[in-house]
Amino acid sequence: MSGPISPDELAEIIEDPQQAPFILDVRETDEYERWQIEGKAALETVNIPYYDAITNDDAVREIIPGDRDVVVVCAQGDTSDLVVEVVDRDNLRNLSGGMEAWAVTLIPRTVYDDGSHFVIQIDRVAKACLSYVLGARGKNMAVVDPSADAKFYLSLAERMGADITDIFDTHLHADHISLANELRDLTGATYHISEGDAFDAAFQYEPLVDGAIFTFGDMDMVVRSVATPGHTPGSTSLEIDGRFLLTGDAVFVSGVGRPDLGGQTIPWAKDLFSTIRDKLSPLDPKLEVLPAHYTSRLESQQDGTLRRELGDLLENDPVVSMTDEDEFVAYVVDHLGDAPGEYGTIRLINLGRKEADAAEISELEVGRNECALSK
C-alpha cells in the first residue's frame, strides 16, 4: 500500500484533473452528507461507512479503481487507516488527520510580490474561506480575516522577516471563528474592525474609519469601511496600493454576500445595492477584487488565486451588474437559502460574548461557508 497523504498534498493534487484521486469516504452517511472534499477537478467520491468497508472489503475492492490513487478519508484519520490496511491495495492512501485536519488546512498563493512587498492569499480550502497577509519584507505586515490556525500566520511573518503590526476583519464573520483576537494577544498588534459590526463587542479594538491609511513599507492600504455595507452593517473594503480591493463578503469574484445573517434582509439588501452602485462602481475598474470567500475552485485563476477585475465584475457578473434596485433585492431574497443555525453562535463568539473550546469550535465550523447566495 502507498504511504499516507497530507492535507497540503491533497489540496495540491485536487487542482489538477490529471492527478485527481478517487475519494473513498468511510465516515457515517450523515457526516458525509454534511460536507465532502471538493477541488477544482471533479472528484469521483464514494461513501462506504467504516464498518461496511472492513466487513465487505471484497466489495470495496470491486468499487475502487486500480489505475490511480484512492484517498481514504474519515473524521480523524484513524479508522480510514484501518480500512487501508484491511483492503490492502497498493494505490490506497490514508488522509493524515482526516477531515479534522482538512478543515483547518491553509494554502498560501502569491497574488503580488516585487521582492520587497507582498500580498498573499490564503485559502482555507475545506471552507472556501480566504484570508490575506500583506506587507514589506523586513518591516511590518498586516493580516486580514485570519482563521483556522494562528501559528500559520506567525510562520508566514517569520518567513517574511516582518512584524505583524495590524490585524483586520473586513466584517463580523458568521461562518468561522476569527483569529484576530488570538493573533493580537500573540503579537501585540492592533485589531481593527468597523464599529458598525463590533459596537457591542466584549473586547478592545480600533474602529476602522473610512479613508484611513495604513502603511506597510512603501505600500499603502486605504480603508473603505462602513462605506460598503450590505453583508453586515459595518462591512469593510480595503484598497491595497491602488492595485487590489479586499471586499470581504460584499462582492465575490462571482455574485454577492447574503444580507440576511443579521435578520435585516431587505434593508441590508438595499444597502448592498447602494454599496455596489454608489461606492464600488466609481473606483478604478482595474482594481483586482480579492474576496473573503468563493463558491467553487472553478472560479480560480490559472495560478490558483481567486481574483477578478472590478470593472469586469461590475459589467459582466449577472448579479453585481444589476442596475435596478427592486430587481436586485427581489433576486437576493429569492436566492438566500436557509441560514445555518450555528451562525448566530459563531457571531457571538466573534464578538467575545460567548466562549467555546476547541471541540465546540470544530463542530460549529463543520462544512463550507454559506455566506453567498444560493444558486
Average predicted confidence as pLDDT: 91
Number of domains: 2
Could you give the distance between the termini? 41 Å
Q: What is the third-level CATH name, the topology of the largest domain?
A: Metallo-beta-lactamase, Chain A
What percent of the residues sit in helical stretches (DSSP H or I)?
A: 25-40%
How many H/I helical runs? Answer: 14
Text of the CATH class of the largest domain: Alpha Beta
**Count of beta strands:** 17
Residue fraction in strands? 15-25%
Low-confidence parts lasting 5 or more residues at pLDDT below 50?
none
Largest sheet: 7 strands, mixed
Content-based structural category: alpha/beta
What does this entry look like structurally?
The protein is an alpha/beta fold and 375 residues long. The protein has 2 domains: 7-101, Oxidized Rhodanese, domain 1, CATH 3.40.250.10; 106-358, Ribonuclease Z/Hydroxyacylglutathione hydrolase-like (Metallo-beta-lactamase, Chain A). 30% of the residues lie in helices and 22% in strands. The protein has 14 helices and 17 strands. The strands form 3 sheets. The protein has a 7-stranded mixed β-sheet. Strands 12-13-14-15-16-17 form a 6-stranded mixed β-sheet. It has a 4-stranded parallel β-sheet with strand order 2-1-3-4, with helices on one face. It starts with 6 loop residues before the first helix and ends in an 11-residue tail after the last helix.
